[in-house]
Amino acid sequence: MNQDSFLFHASVRDNIAFGKPDASQEEIEVAAKIAHAHLFISQLVDGYATPVGDRGVQLSGGQRQRICIARAILSNPSILLLDEATSALDTESERLVQNALDHLMHNRTTLVIAHRLSTIQRADLIVVLDQGRIVAQGTHESLLAEDGLYSRLIEMQQFTPY
Length: 162
Fold this sequence. Notes:
Layout: H1 12-16, H2 25-34, H3 38-42, H4 61-75, E1 79-83, H5 91-105, E2 109-113, E3 126-130, E4 133-138, H6 140-146, H7 149-158
């Protein structure tokens, strides 16, 4: 899943079921609930039958992301690749998407590419790249203790000017 969540010009249901077209409505709704998408989908004019428009144009960025997460939950991949999965989201959408991603990443191999470091702090292993080279690796805590590039990046992202 990358920062540009791809949705097809089809219904919400068809977009979620893309990786498992024979999924039951119940399976689709369970995946949507886990992805924190069921509530907003239920409020759409035609619910799960609502067309999302070309590339999901009818939905917000956070809604598109959560539908893509529901798709991934339903297809249950053994390996998950997330490329800047929360980069274009507002704070509230990021919180919902991160919560859904935490559930999705549980007990599966996940590779996360991120500049927004809040999305990787609980990772088993963080690899820090600088100009294409590995400059550090470890857990969030060990990288902070090193006081290197990672800790400087964390500090910059947490700094809030007046």
